[in-house]
Amino acid sequence: MTNILRIDSSIKGEASVSQKLLDRTQDKLLAAHPGAQVVTRDLSAGVPAIDGAWIGAIFTPAESRNAGQAEIAAYSDALLAEVRAADVLLIGLPVYNFSAPGQLKAWFDHLARKGETFRYTEAGAEGLLKGKRAIVVFTSDGTEFGSDIDFASGWVRHMLGFFGITDVQFVHADQMVFDAEATLKAAEAQVDALAA
């Protein structure tokens, strides 16, 4: 059975282009894998930023955590469990101010845990979440995908690779402000061309 984890990070709700393209991508995958399970994590309401309390909780052995640390760690552990269980990650990447939304950055921060998603070896960092596929839906009003001012897509690809997820494909509806209709149609064609 295929397990799909969908990550929505747009703050635009029903008006979100990334959400519409994620819907289309999800529909394509479900048509090809009718028994697939989908877990959706909507980050639009925000994700707690990691801080000193988070570090204290994560680096304290589970059996030694106080109630507050256990609560902090439980949230982070839930995010990690969703990613571990997934075969395919569908990630919405709306570009805000040339980069990823803060809530998506915070989600990655919760996942970046030594010994859980990566480890250091004599050869350097090794990702521990190998064998997964990621489809990232990049949307922007003015930022061109892959351009010098796109600080989002390369960072997301790097973070996924750091965790061991190297099968990463992008669908992009970029520079929507110039021709939204044609750009959306082109992005829909990219979804339709994806291998399911």
Automatic annotation (TrEMBL):
<dbReference type="GO" id="GO:0016655">
    <property type="term" value="F:oxidoreductase activity, acting on NAD(P)H, quinone or similar compound as acceptor"/>
</dbReference>
<dbReference type="Pfam" id="PF02525">
    <property type="entry name" value="Flavodoxin_2"/>
</dbReference>
<comment type="subunit">
    <text>Homodimer.</text>
</comment>
<keyword id="KW-0285">Flavoprotein</keyword>
<feature type="domain" description="Flavodoxin-like fold">
    <location>
        <begin position="3"/>
        <end position="193"/>
    </location>
</feature>
<comment type="function">
    <text>Also exhibits azoreductase activity. Catalyzes the reductive cleavage of the azo bond in aromatic azo compounds to the corresponding amines.</text>
</comment>
<dbReference type="InterPro" id="IPR003680">
    <property type="entry name" value="Flavodoxin_fold"/>
</dbReference>
<protein>
    <recommendedName>
        <fullName>FMN dependent NADH:quinone oxidoreductase</fullName>
        <ecNumber>1.6.5.-</ecNumber>
        <ecNumber>1.7.1.17</ecNumber>
    </recommendedName>
</protein>
<dbReference type="InterPro" id="IPR023048">
    <property type="entry name" value="NADH:quinone_OxRdtase_FMN_depd"/>
</dbReference>
<dbReference type="GO" id="GO:0016652">
    <property type="term" value="F:oxidoreductase activity, acting on NAD(P)H as acceptor"/>
</dbReference>
<dbReference type="InterPro" id="IPR029039">
    <property type="entry name" value="Flavoprotein-like_sf"/>
</dbReference>
<comment type="function">
    <text>Quinone reductase that provides resistance to thiol-specific stress caused by electrophilic quinones.</text>
</comment>
<feature type="binding site">
    <location>
        <begin position="16"/>
        <end position="18"/>
    </location>
    <ligand>
        <name>FMN</name>
    </ligand>
</feature>
<dbReference type="GO" id="GO:0010181">
    <property type="term" value="F:FMN binding"/>
</dbReference>
<feature type="binding site">
    <location>
        <position position="10"/>
    </location>
    <ligand>
        <name>FMN</name>
    </ligand>
</feature>
<dbReference type="GO" id="GO:0009055">
    <property type="term" value="F:electron transfer activity"/>
</dbReference>
<dbReference type="InterPro" id="IPR050104">
    <property type="entry name" value="FMN-dep_NADH:Q_OxRdtase_AzoR1"/>
</dbReference>
<keyword id="KW-0560">Oxidoreductase</keyword>
<keyword id="KW-0288">FMN</keyword>
<keyword id="KW-0520">NAD</keyword>
<comment type="similarity">
    <text>Belongs to the azoreductase type 1 family.</text>
</comment>
